[in-house]
Write a structure and sequence with these properties.
alpha/beta, Rossmann fold, eight-stranded mixed sheet
């Protein structure tokens, strides 16, 4: 089968979908691999490195026309869909809840589209989980950004000139990104508090040496995939009230709260920001999905009442070498899991739990049950 890897064209994107080491693995499976010329340019990886690994460098049009499988990082430009053969398998981020027109276009062109965000969070699918792999790096970057912007150091220091108290960091949302933010802030020497609507994560927070903040919100919990359930407006109000004093006492606040498939909840209000000391830092990791912080702006840093609100998008792209390695590995693991080694073909098992969750379009129709309900199909 012919696997083609398309170059990323999204403005400001520094990650690449596949690195040469992954090309070698795909070749060992028996696949023919081609890449769009310049694929690795953002990481200074020349075409020659891919060719040495066994790939052929070609144009976008030629690669798409001959591909049985197309691998990307972000969603494909709609105008490129006509260049693909019906029945082509397309694998990438798709943001299907917010990209109905693109999904319907994929169905119309009879492209089998897999949305990597939709892969179920099961044990067997962990190796394919792009959300976790990229969020992990995002959590790290959020802390590093805050440390760089802060006028304070993180660790406690005892010096002849006096003792410097450690910085106080408050992490809101203890998913993969939040846990990495906690771990990174602790490694830098900060005092760390963390809050999540799911009491089940308290043990994880404590295991990293942080304090778990408890706020009585009534009945909360998590979905079957481990995501936090959306709160009611009354619960959000209680949460904000309980968190206000912790934000006020923090030098750095990092928000990571997102609800899969929906706009991120606003959990840090302008009043809460106003209650923080001038010079404090807030990093809104959910800014790309609407933002957790009132006043945050995508790809901007805003100063409100002396508090710097960082709303930079694509945090994993700031450590693009390792982000690309992890994403590339996720892609390979997905392909390898369904690869028929005897026939050197990809076997799209429609009854498989992973495929059921992640396959969006197939043979001209939207087949994902969750999306069909959202679209009203």
């Amino acid at each position: 089968m012919n696997i083609f890897v398309a170059r990323e064209t999204h403005p400001g994107e520094t990650r690449v979908p596949v690195i040469p080491a992954t090309v070698e693995k795909l070749k060992k499976l028996g696949a023919a691999v081609s890449i769009e010329s310049g694929l690795g340019s953002t990481l200074a990886i020349p075409d020659a490195a891919y060719e040495k690994a066994g790939a052929t460098a070609t144009t976008l049009a030629s690669g798409l026309a001959s591909a049985d499988i197309v691998l990307r990082l972000r969603k494909p430009p709609t105008e490129t869909l006509a260049q693909m053969k019906p029945g082509t398998l397309h694998v990438s981020y798709l943001d299907p809840f917010n990209e109905r027109d693109l999904v319907m276009a994929l169905a119309e062109k009879k492209i089998d589209a897999v949305s990597l965000e939709m892969i179920p969070r099961t044990t067997i699918a962990q190796k394919m989980d792009v959300i976790s792999s990229q969020a992990n790096l995002g959590g790290y970057v959020a802390v590093i950004l805050a440390a760089e912007r802060s006028a304070k150091i993180f660790p406690m220091m005892t010096t002849p000139a006096g003792t410097i108290a450690p910085a106080k960091v408050f992490v809101i949302g203890v998913g993969v990104a939040g846990l990495q933010a906690i771990a990174t802030a602790k490694r830098l020497g900060a005092l760390v508090e963390a809050f999540d609507t799911r009491p089940v994560v308290e043990e994880q927070v404590k295991s990293l040496g942080a304090k778990f903040v408890k706020i009585d919100l009534g009945e909360t919990g998590q979905t079957k995939d481990g995501y936090a359930k959306a709160l009611t407006e009354e619960q959000l109000a209680k949460q904000r009230q309980g968190m206000a004093k912790h934000c006020a006492g923090a030098d750095i606040v990092i928000t990571t709260a997102q609800v899969f498939g929906r706009k991120a909840p606003v959990i840090v209000t302008a009043d809460m920001v106003a209650g923080m000391a001038p010079g404090s830092i807030v990093v809104d990791m959910a800014v790309e999905t609407g933002g957790n912080v009132e006043g945050s702006k995508l790809n901007e840093e805003v100063v409100a009442n002396g508090v710097r609100i960082i709303g930079l998008g694509n945090l994993p792209g700031r450590v693009a070498v390792h982000a690309s390695q992890m994403y590339s590995s996720n892609l390979y693991n997905f392909i390898e899991h369904f690869w028929n080694k005897k026939e050197s073909t990809f076997n799209l098992k429609l009854e498989d739990e992973i495929v059921k969750g992640a396959l969006i379009t197939h043979q001209g129709s939207v087949v994902n049950e969750t999306l069909r309900k959202v679209y009203g199909i």
